[in-house]
Amino acid sequence: MSSKINVLVTKEEQLNAVSTMSYVDRIFAGTHLVLNSEDILKRSGKKIYLALPYVLRKEYVPLVEKLVKNDIFSGILVRNPEEFFLINDVLSGDGSKELILDTHLYIVNSEALEFYLENTALKTGGFYHSFESSKKEMSIVDDAIIKKGISGVSPSLVIYGRIPMMISSNCVKKTTGRCDKQFSFDVIKDRYNTDFPVLCDCDVCTNITYNSVPLSLHEDISKLKDKYEVRLDFTDESYEDVKSITEYFATYHGADKPPYEKFTTGHYRRGIE
User: Fold this and answer.
1) pTM of the model
2) How confident is the model over 248-270, as pLDDT tens digits?
3) CA 124 distance to own-chain centroid
4) Do 49 and 174 share a domain, yes or no?
5) Do 222 and 235 sit in the same domain of this protein?
6) Which parts of 189-259 fold into alpha helices (H)?
7) Are residues 183 and 147 in the same domain?
8) Shortest CA distance to 214 belongs to which of 258, 169, 155, 170?
9) Per-residue pLDDT tens over the stretch 138-154
10) Of 101, 139, 259, 263, which sits 20 to 30 A from 118 (CA to CA)?
C-alpha cells in the first residue's frame, strides 16, 4: 500500500527530510519555519500551509497578518476561534487560499462545523477531528455531514504525533533561569520520572508540553486512508526518524511494526471516560 500523506513539521531538519519525499503532498509549517526556512519551503514543490500558533498574542497579530498573505501558502491551518475570525478579516475577498480547521477547534458535531462554514466567505478545504473524539464519535460527525449535504469539506485526521498536553505562557527555561530566547525543545519529568518534551516557542513566547509518547493509529491505517486526509505531526523527531516514520505510514503493510516502541492510540478506540 502506498499513497500520499500530509505532514506538520516543527524543525528545519524535519522540513529537509520531507521536502523531497514523493509520498508527501502537503506540508504544514509553523511561523518559526516560515520566518527562517522559507527558501526550503519554496524549493520543496509541495503544497505549503501556514500552521498558526495555538495561542496568538496581541503583539504578534501584525506579523501573522503579514505572513498569511504570502503567496507561498496554499492555505492556513487555524488553531483557535479567535484566529478563525482574524484570518477571515485579513483574507477577505482572497480566493487563492483555503482555511483548514485544526483539532483544537473541536469539530465534535456537524453543528460546530456548520458554525464555522456559516461565518466565513473563504474556502474551507477541510477540518481535523478532535484528539478527544473516538472513532465512533468521528463516524457520527462524518455521517451527519453526508446526511446534511455539506460538500467541499474533507474530514481529516492526525494519525501520528505527540498530542499537546498543556499550552502555557509560563516558560520552563525562564523559570529555571535559563532563558536564551531560542526556539528549542526542553524536557520536564513527572513523579514517575517520565520525560515530557516541551517546545519553548520564543517567537510567540509560549511553551507547549507534549505527551511522553506519540499517538499512533498505524493499526487502522488502511481504513483511515480510505476515509480521511491523514497527517503526521512531527515535534522533536530527528531527520532520520521523520524519514522512517513517513515512509512507514505511506507504504504500510498490515504486519509491519512501527519504527518506534512506545505509543498510544489516545481516545480513538475508547473515547473519554
Assistant:
1) 0.94
2) 999 887 667 899 999 999 999 87
3) 16
4) no
5) yes
6) 221-227, 239-250
7) no
8) 258
9) 999 999 999 999 988 98
10) 139
